[in-house]
Write the structure tokens for this entry.
Amino acid sequence: MEIRIKDLTKTYASYAAVDAKELSILSGESFGLVGNNGAGKTTLFRSILDLIEPDTGTVQIGDFITKSSEDWKDFTGSYLDENFIVGHLLPEEYFDFVASLHGMSQSDLELKLAEFETLFNGEITGGKKLIRDLSKGNQKKVGIAAALLFDPAVLILDEPFANLDPSTQIRLKDLLKKLKEDKGVTMLISSHDLQHVTEVCERIVLLEKGQVINDIRTSPATLKDLEDYFAGVGKKEAEPIEE
Amino acid sequence: MKNFLQLLSIEWKESRRSPLWHKNLLINLVLGVSFLYMIGMFVVLGVFLDDILIKIPVDGIDYNTFKESFVLRKLNRFLLYYFFVDLIMRYFMQKLPALSIQPFLHLPTRKSKLIHYMLGKSFISPMNLLHWLVFIPFMIELFSNLSFSESLGWSSGFVLTVYLNNYLLTYLKRTSDVDYRVYVTMLVSLVVIIGLDWFDLVDFQAVSETIFNAFFLQPVTTLIPLIIGLGFYYLNFKYLRANLYISRLSKSEKNEITYVGAGILSRFGLVGRLTELEFKFIWRNKRPRSVLLITILFLGYGLLVFPTDEYSGNYLMYILFSVIITGMFMLNYGQYLLGWEGMHFDHILTRKVSFKDYYMSKFMLFAIVSGAAMILSIPYVYFGWEILLVLFSVFLFNIGVGSHCTMFFGSLNPKKIDLSQATVFNWQGLGVAQFLLIIPVMGLPLGLFGIGVIFGSPHLGVAIVGMAGLIGLIGTKLWISLIAKWLSAQRYKISSDFRSQ
């Protein structure tokens, strides 16, 4: 499923949060988004998901313009932050609800959840903890699993590796790679972790002040290039690489 | 002392900068005026307390024997009840300010200092200031009637008992789990005590009189509440000293994950599923749950009006009370319709849930709860058939017209509600829309009834109210699609407001 962004701009008060003339993510491409805080990564994702109204421009997922149609929700899985999950439900209840929205049967759901068993590490399902009582990391696991539950053709994740423990980070990475190879899922992932993102994504876009300033095919040299870029950004703005 | 003042100033900033104040002027004004009104009422009560007491007939206290202390002795007969009720109220409403010191625990201040600060601060908690409001005017009069030592004795005895209650309650609340059962036990024992007194089995009034008379007859007895109060202060201190750890202080409420009637609604497609999720939401969060509990209490509201001769045949009152009996939940819960979901609004937007289904599930929720209230209030027929007729036509109006108005106003400019916050006296989420809602939901049925009265009879008025409800009900799909369309246009603004709140 292809994603096409055209003339997308969003300006807050004084600065441009997103300013993307022409950006296309090909079907089956794994697309990584990097940039410092305030570069507009989350704003771009929110505009794609029709959560904020852009000043100009459109986003199209497959055949659907996200602003005027809702059909893209059928095949788009996303997790940006805790606003995407429902705190007062048990993880099972939440998965059950999401599955029902996509017309999955109970057995489909169980099969699917079994796939996430290593990711969950026994801490998510079968317990008596509501989602809001889970740790940040485990909440994220619930959100990501709910985004993957219905075999989406498009997957959008904001900072999926942050807050996860090292084992889970590695498992998630493997899971994402497998999704790309086996099912040809179109993936949009933003991350502050340059190592992970270069490993998972075949294309990396560097964002600064809402604009695409670099668009590269990942190669063995990419990680080094990115590190050099971020080390060089005006010393006050540069932030230590987290996680 | 310096630290003490610093802590106080930090806390002052906290309350000054709380989002509570960031409302518009009108709301602050309304809240402020009603607050002043409440304070005024308490002061007025205090000023007229002796006049009231003189009028209450009490056996065994002869005016001529006591003269100056007559009023005081009368009051003393009821003080035991007064403090018992105070204890119950405190249990329900007084907050334990435990968490506010959490950010200071890792700083180089002595723990004992923090604890003294915490305990000392409760001196000016509203639950204590209330007593001051009522009794300062009374005490002033006391000093002009009785001798200085007598007045001082009683006044300090009274004040010390207030603070004894304060520290007793905070200790109880800290050491035991907050539980509805404790509250019910307290209420039941109060009823039992009043019952025992009423039927002259045990004379608690005499006990009360003995205790509190002692304060002015033998002022030295005021040492007793002082010592007990200090004892509870010390117990509080000792408990906090041993337990000043975040994990123990933030005793979170046991999360309710049971849910009765699981799966029944889910059989009715997506709308049913959404309604069921909403019931889970209500049941599992304190604030909406208390809305539901209040609704149950208000089912008995009609008893204030329906059986009395005073309002017999007063259809206006019948209608007003009927709106509340079957519409209490809808109004109280529905006024924050979207605010409740501020924490997961993006979830709703990115999932394939159409706004029509979304509102339809809200409508179902209102219809189910109002319907249940209607069924439960059928016994009111005992007070007359016309009451049941009024209840039923207002019920129709509530779900046919009121529900759609509530859904619309509840979606106007919503404020995110943080569910981890306290329940009592929580105005979070309140906006102008919530006040405006009263116009159609309360005013419209009264207006329609009035039209009926002008052109015929009260019965015609009631029929018009019912018909309006029926017409609204038939058009449900249309109204919902209009509200959904409106929300669709507002969705960016609402979701970005929620994110920034």
Q: What stands out?
A: Residues 2-8+22-249 of chain B form one domain. The radius of gyration of chain B is 27 Å. The interface with chain A takes residues 252, 255, 257, 266, 270, 273, 277, 280-281, 284-285, 343-347, 349-354, 419, 492, 495-496, 498-499 of chain B (CB under 8 Å). Residues 148-175 of chain B form the longest helix (28 residues).
